[in-house]
Amino acid sequence: MPTVQQANDRNGIIVMNVLFTIIVITVVALRFYARHITRAGYGWDDWTALAALIFTLALNGIFLAATIDGAITGHSPVVDGWPVTIPLEIVAQKYKYAFQTTEKPVFGLIKVSILLLWKRLFGSSKRFRILCWVMIGITIAWTFAFFFTTVFQCGTRWPLNWSPIGIFLTKCIATLDVLTVFASTDIVSDLIIIAMPVPLIWRLHLPTKKKVALNSVFLIGLFTIGAGIARTYMYLVTSYDKENNPDFIADFTLCILWSEIEANVAMMVCCLPTLTPVIGKFAASLRTTPLGKWLPTATEKTHMTSEDVELSVASKLRRKQFSRLSDKETLWQEGTVATAGYSSTNELPRNNRTILARTDISTTFEARDSDSL
């Protein structure tokens, strides 16, 4: 196996961490704002995403502290092909234990949030609902299994968790194998979860372009899988090829770095499918600015999401000259006006998906003097 490229830009890593923190907070806030403006109500997928955000922020805090303390981007002295123990190695071991323990709930909660969202969007299919519940059960079991395996990797002899790497590898469980299995199953489960709604979308009665557009939203999750593959590669190279990669602290940096990237990208992907109302509202407001004249004009005024329909239309559909009826050349004009609206959310139970609509259509004949034309 080749020698991996080391990450040494401490300031760049700190900036990346701060940007990730700002972005994940923003996307989750926009997720809740989207639910508010569409009056869809908050679901378990939203609350699970919020819990995932809390753990992601904790993960980012651990990563930032490790970078500031020098554990990330640090290096181990190497003698005879083996890292020499220094105080920084013990610090790195402590941060590694805290990070790897915290990342398990992060990935688990994000996966469950996405599955609950799938169930909410595509729950009309009984088979799909059952599949979602099965995957939720598997994900919860997967999360607890690896969480407790990490917590008790050295039994209850807690100091061994941050002992020198040579002692840690001989006194604790085969953590390298556990990390490899964890990373591999993480990628497989992500592939299954992302692919789940694709067959349902292709069965919809929509133009092919719209089907491709919908699928592209879900396939953004491939970025998460890419980060997971990069992390797995780093695990394999740095763990099983110590001859070419003997610098423990530098290897620790690479593995933690890619875990950090994967967790934050997954947090963004978890919320992106819910942000359509916010994006639509922003695009509509942008067209009222001078920049709007450079934007394409929308051909459809109706804004729909997969869950919520908001209808507020008041338009004159037809207006034309009807006839001339007398010598005074009085013009009669026929017009049809239609208005429609949805019922107040107070009229129905919150969980009722029914939409009450009222449409009033009236035809008017208005006399106008020919001189006013």
Automatic annotation (TrEMBL):
It comes from the Eukaryota. It holds the Pfam family Fung_rhodopsin. InterPro entries: Rhodopsin_dom_fungi, SAT4-like. GO terms for cellular component: membrane. Its main location: membrane. It is found in: Membrane. It is a multi-pass membrane protein. Residues 30-279 form the Rhodopsin domain. The chain crosses the membrane at residues 12-34, 46-68, 130-153, 173-200, 212-236. Keywords: Membrane, Transmembrane, Transmembrane helix. Belongs to the SAT4 family. This is Rhodopsin domain-containing protein. It comes from Xylaria grammica.
